[in-house]
Amino acid sequence: MIIETPQAVMIKNSIITASVFVAVVMRVSYWFSNRLTLGRVHGSAIAIAVGFLLAYVGGVLGGESKGIADIPMLIGLVFSAARCSEILRSSRQPLVLI
Question: Looking at the whole model, is its pTM more than 0.70?
């Protein structure tokens, strides 16, 4: 089918798909912030709340421990989070503010 090809590409490039997913969530969150709360609630706070909600829903519906990353197209979220924590652990340099 026609839909199988884009889905296979998104699963194969799951890190890119997950990055686009995060960008869309951020953009929608900032839009909600500007339109619905008139800037009183910051867009990143809305995005964090949406992320928690999606992780909960993904965990409940998926029945496994990865949350939203149980969806094959979004497994890149796990890889990118693991890579970020690896970078932070390997960076033993103290933070210097000038």
Answer: no
